[in-house]
Specification:
The protein contains 9 helices and 14 strands. The protein is an alpha+beta fold and 325 residues long. A hairpin with a 2-residue loop joins strand 9 and strand 10. Helix 1 packs antiparallel against helix 2 and helix 6 packs across helix 7.
């Protein structure tokens, strides 16, 4: 999404009351009345949410929505919510309280302004499979758990102080930020730009990766990575295969963090592939995974021995092609 779009008046929000309610609740050490007030203020607020549109959606209607124009009844259609995940795989509806809270838009190609109450209804829909709402995931990462919207605090009293709302810790944010790059930004750029992205990787290498890993942190938080955390090696294996082997940061590792990545390009057909070696759980092997062009994350097999990762990746691609014939 072009940030110029966010400059439109429809995205101009004043959520000062919501910001104050959040700070009051955090300072109160889980005071029930402060929590009640926070949820009330949130439900009454207008927010910015990322969405995806069905392929069959009328482009003229989509443009109306992006401009913030009201739709007629016969124009309405169901939007596809975009989600973010925490380190445990729980999915949340991302919500932005202002334009200033949006640091990076590449992972969110479309955004619209909606009443927060609409987001709450979606979260409470069990079919959506959402754990809750994550406010300003690129900056604060403040979470409303799903049951916060259904609890009667006047009856629950002190017992309602179980974690209903929380602020994502720096460690949790680091996980979200890293995953957004390794499983989001990099494969998305590869599948969209193909040989152009491979060429950029070859030419700029660690410098480009450092920029990508720093983006989720914006200007308000320091990125924990340096250029020495990355290593890039491009190999022209034959006329049909260019491989880029990427060593990724080894500090702050967590389960499913990518230890290395392998970008494969066929220069003649522009076919591209993206594989990763991900850290396994304690006592378990690391895992060879890939991201498909439609964004699916797949665990393929236990990671091959160190030094033979690229061979294993190329074997998988060859087998895939043979099966397709």
């Amino acid at each position: 999404m072009d940030k110029k779009i966010l400059a439109r008046k429809t995205f101009s929000l004043d959520n000062a009351e919501l910001e104050k309610a959040i700070e009051d609740y955090k300072a109160s050490k889980n005071d029930v009345k402060k929590l009640e007030n926070l949820i009330r203020v949130f439900k009454e607020a207008q927010v910015i949410v990322p969405v995806a549109f069905p392929k069959k959606a009328d482009i003229n209607v989509v443009l109306k929505m992006l401009r913030g124009e009201p739709l007629k009844k016969n124009e309405e259609f169901r939007m596809i919510p975009v989600t973010v995940s925490d380190p445990d795989g729980n999915k949340y509806a991302p919500v932005f309280t202002s334009r200033d809270a949006i640091l990076e838009t590449k992972d969110f190609p479309y955004m619209i302004r909606v009443p927060a109450e609409q987001v709450v209804r979606n979260v409470l829909n069990e079919k959506a499979g959402l754990t809750g709402v994550m406010l300003d995931p690129q900056t604060k990462g403040f979470i409303f758990r799903r049951h916060a919207f259904t609890t009667d605090f006047s009856k629950q009293g002190a017992s309602s102080r179980n974690v209903q709302v929380k602020k994502v810790s720096k460690a949790e944010f680091a996980v979200l930020a890293r995953n957004s790059v390794e499983k989001g930004q990099i494969p998305k750029m590869l599948f969209e730009k193909k040989s152009e992205f491979v060429r950029e990787l070859d030419e700029r290498g660690a410098e480009l990766l450092l920029e990508l890993y720093a983006k989720p942190y914006g200007d308000k938080l320091p990125s924990p990575y340096t250029i020495d955390d990355f290593s890039v090696m491009a190999l022209d294996i034959n006329e049909e295969t260019t491989a880029v082997c990427i060593e990724l940061p080894q500090k702050g590792l967590f389960v499913q963090a990518a230890l290395s990545a392998y970008v494969i390009l066929n220069p003649q057909t522009e076919e591209v592939y993206y594989y990763m070696i991900e850290k396994g759980a304690k006592g378990e092997s690391n895992v060879l995974c890939n991201i498909t062009p439609d964004g699916r994350h797949q665990e393929l097999m236990s990671a091959p021995p160190v030094g033979s990762e690229l061979t294993a990746v190329l074997d998988l691609i060859r087998e895939e092609k043979e099966e397709a014939v």
